[in-house]
Amino acid sequence: MAVLSLPRLRFGRFGYGAATALFAAVMAGAPAARAEDKVLTIYTYESFISEWGPGPKVKATFEKTCGCTVNFVGLEDGVALLNRLKLEGASSQADLALGLDTNLVEEAKQTGLFAPHGIDTSKAQVPGGFKDDIFVPYDYGHFAVVYDTQTIKNPPKSLKDLVEGDPSQKIVIEDPRTSTPGLGLLLWVKSVYGKDAPAAWAKLKNRVLTVTPGWSEAYGLFTKGEVPMVFSYTTSPAYHIVAEKTDRYQAASFLEGHYIQIEVAGLLKNAKNKQLAQEFLTFMLTTGFQDEIPTNNWMMPVTKTSTPLPDAFNHLVQPSKTFLMSPEEVAANRKAWIAEWQAAMAAK
Predict the structure, then answer these.
(1) What is the pTM of this model?
(2) CATH topology of domain 10-140+260-315
(3) CA angle 234, 236, 242 (to 5 degrees)
(4) Which of 8, 55, 221, 273 could form a disulfide with 13 if both were Cys (CB 3.0 to 4.6 A apart)?
């Protein structure tokens, strides 16, 4: 849903002020594209295609062999991406959607906009497993509360601690209506609290400084020092260790366990370049793509990379339990649970 010069920032998730412009191969002054040139249009989240994200690198690598131009279109976040596709319907210009997650795949299938990918995904490995004939997994990460050790001396040790902790110690979270991390937090709270989730939100809202449309805005506020905690990923500290040589920012390990996000890409039924789109989906499971995930999207790769991950990844929080609702359960309840969240957050 990542991943800071400010990974979903995810710079990839960490590219603050993420690019919203489309990435095109034709540069100013270059000859116009020939009519026979192929263009692959991919809708994704903004941070993926930011200067710091994996987008520019995987675009360049794929274009070396595809005889095509990769055209990225950046949306706010994964939920916003799905909303855009619903709005455009069969007239969408997208060949591929990259940046949904397993919490959204059933709802995405119900739109009728996606087609079977038709590629071999046997090499993709994620915790708990994920096999699907429509969507291809390309990275994963566990959600976590990331905190500033210079401000927070006693971080929450559980979701209960977060909900019932000192309201003067604020956190910034993402909106579940537009953001996959925001939806992830909603589902994490529901997984732990069940029918008592509204009461948990009523308490937690006292610690929420603000709710942002996407991950990039939230992490930007955090790294600017405007808030001591942010809802992000267990992998986020790796960015700071590798790129900034600091362990100032850490992820809190929660006793109940952590909710996982598995990000996926899918082929649009009305794609103008289906074969090219399938080639890109296959490419996503190769080192040409996967090598860019750990240190550009700051998420975990789903296949082996050509070199070992940086040592920082060996020192991240290792969840004692992984939460993940089925896509069907999320699709059946997402609207009601978001309404529940809205009511709790709006109540005085």
Answers:
(1) 0.89
(2) D-Maltodextrin-Binding Protein; domain 2 (3.40.190)
(3) 125
(4) 8
